[in-house]
Here is the input.
Amino acid sequence: MLTDALIITRREIRDSLRDWRILAPIVILTLIFPWIMNLSTRVAINFVEEYNATIIPLRLVPFALMIVGFFPISFSLIIALETFVGEKERNSLEPLLDTPISDEALYFGKLLAAMLPPLFASYLGVLTYLLGLYLSIQYTPEWIVLFQIVAMTTMEALVMVSGAVVVSSHTTSVRAANLLASFIIIPMAFLLQGESVLLFWGQYDVMWYILAALFVADVLLIRTGVRTFNREEILAREIDTLNLGSMARAFRRFFVGAHFSPARIYRDDVPRLLRENRLALAVTLLVVGGGVALGWLMALRYPLPAGAFGPLRVDADVFKSPLTPGYDFLPSIGTLPIFFNNIRALALAALLGLFSFGSLALLLLLIPMGIVGFFAGEMGPLGSDPLTFLAAFILPHGLFELPAAIIATAFALRLGASIIAPPPGVTAGENLLRALADLAKMFLFVVLPLLLLAAWVEANVTPQIVIWFYGR
Amino acid sequence: MPALIETLGLTKQFDTLTAVDHLTLTVVEGEILALLGPNGAGKTTTVRMLSSILKPTAGSARVAGYDVVRDARAVRHIVGHLTEFPGLYLRMRPLDYLDFFGELQGMARADRRARAQELLQHFDLWDARARRLGEYSKGMRQKMALIRAMLHNPRILFLDEPTSAMDPHSAKQVRDAIASLRGSGRTIVLCTHNLYEAEALADHIAVIRRGKLIALGTPAQLKCDLLGLPLWQVRLARPLDQPWPSLNGALQVQSFDDLTLRYHTRAPETANPLLLRRLQEIGAAVLELHEMPRSLEEVYLKLVL
Here is the structure.
């Protein structure tokens, strides 16, 4: 398989290098951009050192390294779209499909061809940048950080190329593929922002987790690519016009079924959907437990100083609206504000989950759970019982809100994952619509009633219980 | 002659569309079969299944004894496929292009070079070998695609519209090449809209409509089945001074005048010599006797409309 794949790779790389529209930006980003970045870095370092801000240069260089490495690999997305869907559009793919080469060899050959030139340019750019820094200010990077950035760049290139294949498999024109590429660009933009924060913050340990997450994303995307990039799928897809009418009909079919009946939904659909999505539910439950445990561990690692605060006591006024100025990002304590706030959070999770294979939906649940765990963990040093804290502050409305959040997140996870591996005979679009219909059904008939009940309890019952336990 | 291509109930379904519907046919070794049918009839899908690049939804097909699903790789080795569109890499030069496809077919480097040169010379492209394929005319590109399909010397060739977009001279070159391939024992399936080409080249013609095989036979058989008995015409140099001979019902006269007689007959091999003898006996000056030409187009339109 490898020999055949390399025949494809060789030809495609040569073809890419014959195209000045690809070659010119790569050369500029490889040689000229690092030089400009080098100049900027030196100016910035000289400037901040005048004010003895020595930590900034230390953090600036890894950030600049990341940028220098990333820009050339952004071309891998363009090359990948060109090499996969571009070939399909120009009808030059079918002659390849007529040869004895296997689908996998063709896929990996093209994957390598789209990745190698930008990646080589990226490494060269990083080298040029570091060489410039060494010659001008004798700077040498920490090898671990350099390794992390180079590995991250490689993984990111692989995510973009393998993501582009998935996108290409569902289109027949470069134009449509470019539009769908936002599914890759938006998560990558989020990722870069996150990496920038971490690099400036100096949290290099966290970069390992990101690398691991990127590795998992690569494996998932390659698996999906291998499944979708095959002769049958490629040739069976002749047109890809966006037919909103047919999409609406498919959604209605998945949502309503033969006829609309709320009784049937509660009696048949809800239990069936819960059963069918038990894996996503289990993963979400694990994230809830993991979030609480992680927060608790953080509290044990960073305990509040003993005696800094007395045992927890709460004034009855705390629950009166409006809240203290400065906390107006929080909903006021009332059924409807809490209800709409929770809807907004879960809807946002579903939306982000769609662009991140479900991972960001999980992250949005992990964060509040971590905070809950952290506060519970801090109760000990404050002289309060953590379990009583949880029973008073979380349990009353949590009985309804947690199941609602778990169900909504699990279905958002499935929505995001639906395009990765559609079942045999089902297109990714169909699978996505089905997942969307299932999410909508569960949201409307299960999550919303639970959230409404939880909001009422949180606004009216939880404060009473908190005052009962901790009131002064 | 052994059957080289056999399909049995071959079916391909795309969502709600049945592109090929229970197609059963046989092509023997060395034969040229023309697949005719309107656009969307299922010709290309049939060829794609027979080239092992699409899997049948139902039914089966064997090509040179290989199952098109189980032995897909072997099938792709022994068939050459000229696709509907040339689909060339326009930034490449012909020798590099053919070398790439030859390598994918597992040919040795020397063989690839020799075969590429032979075919480029045969199709008058050798002198244009230094140019990039993007600089080629439409006809040259089509010839290049045909060379790509023939490069690895396949036993079976699937040709999808081989002369489309070609000038008359190039089209004739390709038709001559196809005819010469038959002489070398190759089996060819030709998808075409060019009925003249089909009639000139094909031993058998299969007409497909909405995925179903609606007619199969030699051009002569199809004409006979669909247009009736052939029409014969006798023309004289000068008018007869007596009625046309009747031959006791051996001729079904369609029309006549002083100089011309048109008739059908079930046994032209006996009826025509007899008619000529009678005419000679009565002193008629026979100018010509011939079968009236009937085009395949009439057959085709009768089938698909």
In short: Chain B touches chain A at residues 14, 48, 51, 53-55, 73-74, 76-77, 79-81, 83-89, 91-92, 100-101, 103-106, 145, 148-149 (CB under 8 Å). The first strand of chain B starts at residue 3 and ends at 14. The longest helix of chain B spans residues 168-183.
